[in-house]
Amino acid sequence: MKDVRVDTVDDPKIEDARDAIIRVTSTAICGSDLHIYNGSIPQPRPMVLGHEFMGIVEEVGKGVGSKLKVGDRVVVPFPIACGTCYFCNHELPGHCENSNPDHYGPEGGLMTEKGGALFGYTDLYGGYNGGQAEYVRVPYADFGPRVIPDSLTDEQALFLTDIFPTGYSGIDWADVKGGEFVAIFGSGPVGIMAAKSAWLRGAARVVIVDTLQYRLDKAKASANVETIRWENHKQVVEEIRAMSEGRGADVCVECVGFEPDRDLLDRAKAIINLEKGSDKVLTTCMSAVRRGGVVTVLGVYTAPFDNFPVHQFFDKGITLRGGQAPAQKHIDKLLQYVVEGKVVLDDIITHRLPLMEAAHGYDIFRNKKDNCVKVVLKP
């Protein structure tokens, strides 16, 4: 817990014919990494973290075929997926049946059965080393990695790995077609990418909610959104309803998850109810969305919550969707948006550090020091 260090480990090797070895040129710290750093998602043994990375192909297995060659510059989607199972064939790579054999199952849950594997995201999600390293093994390399054109810098393309497809999924799940009022909860990297995606899909109005002014300022500067500073549930809901003739937002996107800023009362409730974290942001979304509206959940939740407002879900006719983003489903289209200049991704970066300073990067990101929004590490 809170123990991230830079160490020397064995170089990865080809273990399967569909593997590739990537020399990492850029990687980033994600908000999801903080759940491991905080100890909220357990990982008892050391492992290499990181699921946002890109680099140069150094070696390919015999089964990769013509999809990749040595020297290709690639970005790698964060789910590890085979590309051939039932779920991969239904554009649900995060539920791949083959990448996480030790913990996969239909039930779902933190300590029971998971979906497909993720890079650098604990033994529960496959135990694969991640990309906050000099080299990384990429399984199913004929399905996941995408070659990046020379016209793009690493920083222009890096967030195609996770946060841009994730933010886009929150808007796509809501079937935004144009003219909607979208309220986004959480002004971190995923929330800002959701806002950029909302504009791409034709939203008429986009507002971001957060507790910290510097994060709201970053969202306003990089995504041209309106902002609401969170004080409490009631105040936020009232402000969103006031913006929409009393109805509420057409779409609410939850980008915070189970570890929001909490006061003593929130913490006491969690202890009494044997809950991990809090669902207060999600329940606020349920109030802030209009009747017949859509709530999409991009923030991570790892445990059940007492008093979840299922009555509100029913009475208001809310559509609720969430989960790991199907990055492979969207990445080609999103890459084209970047190539065509329809969206800019690298303007959210606030800190660039050498890989050797990863521990410092985790500290400032987790503790919101130095107005940190997004850290990119360079091996």
Automatic annotation (TrEMBL):
UniProt keyword annotation of Ligase present: no
A GO molecular-function annotation: oxidoreductase activity
Record keywords, A-Z: Metal-binding, Oxidoreductase, Zinc
Ligase listed as a keyword: no
Cofactor(s), by name: Zn(2+)
Sequence ranges assigned to domain Alcohol dehydrogenase-like C-terminal in this UniProt record: 189-258
Ranges of residues in domain Alcohol dehydrogenase-like N-terminal: 18-142
Family to which this protein belongs: Belongs to the zinc-containing alcohol dehydrogenase family.
PANTHER family listed in its UniProt record: DEHYDROGENASE, ZINC-CONTAINING, PUTATIVE (AFU_ORTHOLOGUE AFUA_2G02810)-RELATED, ZINC-TYPE ALCOHOL DEHYDROGENASE-LIKE
This protein's name: Putative Zn-dependent dehydrogenase
